[in-house]
Design brief:
It is a single chain. By secondary structure, the chain is of the alpha+beta class. It has three domains: 100 residues, Acyl-CoA dehydrogenase/oxidase, N-terminal domain (Butyryl-Coa Dehydrogenase, subunit A, domain 1); 102 residues, Butyryl-CoA Dehydrogenase, subunit A, domain 2, CATH 2.40.110; 145 residues, Butyryl-CoA Dehydrogenase, subunit A, domain 3, CATH 1.20.140. 53% of the residues lie in helices and 15% in strands. It has 13 helices and nine strands. β4 and β5 form a beta hairpin. α9 packs antiparallel against α10 and α10 runs antiparallel to α12. The site of flavin-adenine dinucleotide has 21 residues, from β1, β3 and α13.
Length: 363
Amino acid sequence: LTSARDLVGTLVADRADAWDAAGRLPEDLLRDLGGRGLLCAEVPGSYGGLGAGSRDSGEFTAYVGSLCGSLRSIMTSQGMAAWTVRRLGDQDQRAAYLPRLTSGELAAVGFSEPDAGSDLSAMTTSVRVEDDVVVLDGEKMWVTGACYADLLVVFARSEDDVVVVVVPTATPGVTVERIPDPLGCRAAGHANVRFSSVRLPASAVLGGTGLSLLATTALAYGRISVAWGCVGILRACLNAAVTHARTREQFGKPLARHQLVARHLAELLVSEQVATRACEHASDLWDARSPDLVTAVVLAKHVAAGHAARGAATATQVLASAGAAHGHVVARAYRDAKLMEIIEGSTEICQLILAEHAVATVA
Ligand code: FAD
């Protein structure tokens, strides 16, 4: 993915701030990157993907995250959609959907609802069989990338259990309503999506059932991707803070020579390193298909998001008025990083999962 890094670096350059201010990413850029398989790099070559391992894909995600949190968010959604299809789709469904996700079509994933945020068991979006079609009704909230998406991967309740349905956004009865001016990742195309008697072929329902599907498929992928994105935020913040502290002088010497500022730099370095190690560990377990990966992924997401939120605040402190200017990389990181503590399992939900694991496993 080295050449991909160079390509994305050139395409994004210094445009992320303008995209953030406009609240939109250029759609041709998304489709170009999607068509090169770069929005879901782990999809195997047989489906037009790059077949990247979790570590390489993670480092690439971190790089994109260091440039533009909104673009990284789109990658996370596309990767979640592709992983869900890979894990739950049968051979025909994988052959039908995955090549679309590596050839320029865009996808988003919906599980949250107005009354089902942290508690996804309260989900009410329903899918029912009617003759030879299925009918979808309900509402999904805050779906990242939905404004750009051609396909929505939707978790819904069937008569017996939770299932996953792939819904083309152009299907009659689908309404996508943009969320204006979110706090961060402002160009990531977040939307609330309503499904009103949406009729789909039975083949749109992926195999596999159960709410635990969420933890092992979409959420697990989303968590590791967000965690690597947080590593990128930390790298951007460390870079900006060190560069500034080396050159800006107050009281006759560079900021970096004032011990209290130096402590901020040390904390940022520690944050970046700790988050990186947690992500590398989770990715290694992911690539090894270890049963421990689910907990490792929650831990990586929790550690990386917490460090990113604190690290972005620290970097903003080091730059002070220079970082407070509209569109500065640390100002954007400050807003984007806070959201990382909310999505894909909030800080509190991650803590509950980790505490449960500790209680069950510590001798
Ligand atoms: P609530 O569940 O109402 O929680 C409010 C607060 O209470 C939180 O701090 C939470 O941690 C805490 N809390 C809740 N229950 C407990 C508990 N049992 N113990 C302790 N604390 C608790 N959803 C999608 O489906 N697809 C997406 O692509 C997507 N992208 C998103 C992008 C952004 C930028 C944001 C902000 C949200 C996105 N979401 C998406 C929704 C996201 O998954 C939810 O916001 C998240 O699950 C939290 O739900 P909630 O906002 O309803 O908060």
